[in-house]
């Protein structure tokens, strides 16, 4: 079963590219971030036409997440990260598909740091860890994917100096991510590419794509059960180079059914 993640950076602006990718790669589950549309504006019919069911959690102009499932509807969907009833940002959605709990997230960027946005990022990561610990303690097979907005290690960025002051690679961000991994989650892409140099994001500015100045912030974490079933993981890098593409490339993981 292939589970994929794609920060689409505006689902309406990228719809042709998104459908193109879905048809070409046909993931069983496609998790989308930054759909940037309210719930009523989500283009559900576009995905129904190519055989996908959809659940989504939208927000006007910002954020927003969705999960597409191939051929059959997801079970037990849930929207919003537990732990803060006042948090209205649409960044978290989960469901069960073929016996696996799929968690899709768009973690806060945190810039500028220091400041309230960075504080929100760290608090959000603490809440995420609590949710994932609950899944772990109940031994639920799970795959956690999305735009984590964390560059885990120096090997995951084209230039450490260029990103040194960014919230994505501050020691606090990295430590919060490491604590999640240390709870028993496997970073599929990182595990299969121990030398690093695998990027998932290239900025639109300064010719970053053309110069391959990227970094890895889109991750796929596997529970112990799913890690034992890991077959492969990768990045559909070529889709970043297409016309009117997102600034992220899709990432994917394959596990045995």
Strand portion, in percent?
A: 25-35%
Radius of gyration: 17 Å
Q: Which residue ranges are poorly predicted, with pLDDT under 50 across at least 5 consecutive positions? A: none
What order do the SSEs take from the amino end to the carboxyl end, as H and E? EHEHEEEEEHEHEHEEEHEE
Total separate domains? 1
CATH level 4 superfamily: Endonuclease/exonuclease/phosphatase
Query: Ends: how far apart?
Result: 6 Å
Instruction: Give me the side-by-side strand order of the main sheet.
Output: 3-4-2-1-14-13
Class of secondary structure makeup:
alpha+beta
**Could you tell me the mean pLDDT?**
97
**Which descriptor suits the 3D outline?**
globular
- Give the tally of β-strands: 14
- Percentage of helical residues? 10-25%
Work out the helix count. 6
- CATH-defined architecture: 4-Layer Sandwich
Tell me about this structure.
By secondary structure, the chain is α+β, with helices and mostly antiparallel strands. It has a single domain (2-255), classed as 4-Layer Sandwich (Deoxyribonuclease I, Chain A). Helices cover 23% and strands 27% of the residues. The protein contains six helices and 14 strands. The chain has helices at residues 15-25, 44-48, 116-137, 171-182, 188-192, 224-227, and strands at 2-7, 29-33, 52-57, 65-70, 75-79, 92-97, 100-106, 142-147, 186-187, 201-202, 214-215, 218-222, 230-235, 251-255. The chain has a six-stranded mixed β-sheet. A hairpin with a 2-residue loop joins strand 6 (92-97) and strand 7. Helix 3 runs parallel beside helix 4 (171-182). The protein is globular, with a radius of gyration of 17 Å. Residues 4-248 form the Endonuclease/exonuclease/phosphatase domain. The record marks 149 as: Transition state stabilizer.
